[in-house]
Amino acid sequence: MRRRRRWLVATALSAVVAAAGIALPAGSAAAESNGGVRVMPLGDSITEGTQVPGGYRIGLWQRTAAAGYRVDLVGSQFNGPTALGDHDHEGHPGWRIDQIDANISGWLGSTSPRSVLLHIGTNDVLQNYNLGGAPNRLSTLIDHITVWYAALRAVPGAVGDPGTSTGGALVGAASGRCLDVPGGNTANGTQPIIWDCSGAANQHWTNYGQTLQALGKCLDAPTNATAGAKAQLWDCHGGTNQRWTLSSDGTIRGAQSGLCLDVDHNLTANGAVVLLWTCSAAANQRWSRV
């Protein structure tokens, strides 16, 4: 029995459940809805994130956002840090399988998820609740849980399709030169410059969702950036400081800072650095896609 207990403690019931065909009722919860595919993180404290508020949902959100997927997390609960772009979930610390089961119909009816991420079973063991029946309750176990991201992508339609991407050079209106990753340097913190347009990969910028990527890295604004902070390349993580709006006036505005990509002091020579500045739609802040 002790060996079985140890095995069960190391085990959690986990599944990706497709909920296709559920109609969206009027008045459904949409605390942070972005219009994306509705996904319910469901379970106990592991989903809620008791020790680390947000738990696995933080990494899941960042990776899906960075890859251009639009995912709307849903549930009656709400918590997590700023790095988690959508805080809705259905995680209940201390709850067992039977307690989740007793409420699932109501939750599904009020939020209508397209997919459900189920992680449950730990508390059955901790509370010594009918351990003999636990293997049957855990029959839908997924043995390998690394990031829910891989599991979601393995289920066709679970998170929809990646957002439409566009790519090409970004040419400054004032200089006629291209936004450039100097020397093709992909180290975190590399500051973009302007340079004669060459069509090279270090001048090719692709939109995935709201991210702007070159050479596998994301254009990034330092956290809490103020006017004059450098624009930089960084590992993609889906945070708001890596989300940009390409406005109709040609400016590229940061979602977190509200600042625009700006060629320092309106310089036009090769090597002029690109930073963040208060948006004015001046020529040194306007960019066109070619």
The succession of helices and strands, N to C, reads HEEHHEEEHEHHHEEEEEEEEEEEEE
Multimer state: single chain
Q: Which geometry do the CA atoms define?
A: elongated
- Rg, rounded, reads 23 Å
What's the level 1 CATH class of the largest domain?
A: Alpha Beta
CATH architecture of the largest domain: 3-Layer(aba) Sandwich
Arithmetic mean of pLDDT: 82
Strand % is: 15-25%
Query: Ends: how far apart?
Result: 67 Å
Number of strands: 19
CATH fold-level topology of the largest domain: Rossmann fold
**Backbone structural class:** alpha+beta
Name given to the CATH homologous superfamily of the largest domain: SGNH hydrolase
Q: Which parts are unreliable, with pLDDT below 50 for 5 consecutive residues or more?
A: 1-30, 140-146
Question: Secondary structure elements and their pairing?
Answer:
Layout: H1 2-9, E1 13-18, E2 37-43, H2 45-48, H3 56-66, E3 71-73, E4 77-78, E5 88-91, H4 97-111, E6 115-120, H5 122-126, H6 134-137, H7 148-154, E7 166-168, E8 170-172, E9 178-180, E10 193-195, E11 205-208, E12 211-214, E13 217-220, E14 232-234, E15 244-246, E16 252-254, E17 260-263, E18 274-277, E19 287-289
